[in-house]
Specification:
single chain; 200 residues; alpha/beta; Rossmann fold; 9 strands; globular
């Protein structure tokens, strides 16, 4: 079988697989190094976003005002579900041991998967993330772990929204670790080290 969607697969002969979801304007190669630092023992699966915004790769659409197009978010979830199913058949990894790590648009996409199809992911590691769907969480997130790692002055992830979303995730049963750094829309090396330590 040939998977049409551009992606990178790195086989570590592991029972664990980490799905890497890049931010706006990046591609399937962008987060490989981050994946190696977060979970060096895991297989890595990194697809490219299928949406183009002025030539920049994304996983779902947003309006010119920056609002997430809700139908596009849900479409991205369905596309990823199909891709994961194809990739698991192609590469033979265990779909029951799949976690996701993303930045910005990719992090929001991973959180959308968790909100809509929680059975797909065990853990979500979200850098520079906010709530991707306006709808309330209506699924059971017990036994799910979520890391949200944001900057205090990130214009794309207002702390008030993050705090409310974190509370909603916890109320749905998820174990949530909220990490903050004093910067903006970026990944903190200290957060990478802390998450790696928590996962091992």
């Amino acid at each position: 079988m040939t998977i049409a969607r551009p992606h990178v697969w790195i086989d570590k002969d592991s029972t664990e697989t980490l799905l890497l979801l890049h931010g706006t304007g990046a591609d399937e190669n962008d987060l490989i190094q981050l994946g190696e630092m977060i979970s060096p023992q895991s297989n890595l699966l990194s697809p490219r976003g299928t949406v183009s915004e002025n030539g920049m790769n994304r996983f779902f659409e947003r309006t010119p005002q920056g609002e997430f197009v809700q139908s596009s978010v849900l479409e991205a979830v369905g596309e990823l579900e199909d891709f994961i199913s194809e990739a698991s058949q192609e590469y033979g990894f265990d779909k029951q041991n799949l976690s996701a790590c993303g930045f910005s648009n990719g992090a929001n996409t991973a959180l959308a998967v968790l909100m809509v199809r929680p059975e797909i992911l065990k853990t979500v590691i979200a850098f520079g993330a906010t709530k991707p769907l306006r709808q309330p969480i209506e699924v059971d997130l017990r036994n799910k772990t979520v890391f949200i790692a944001n900057g205090d002055v990130d214009p794309f992830a207002p702390p008030a929204i993050t705090d409310a979303f974190t509370a909603e995730l916890r109320a749905s049963g998820a174990r949530v670790e909220l990490l903050t750094h004093p910067g903006g829309h970026q990944i903190s090396s200290a957060h990478i080290q802390q998450i790696n330590s928590d996962l091992t």
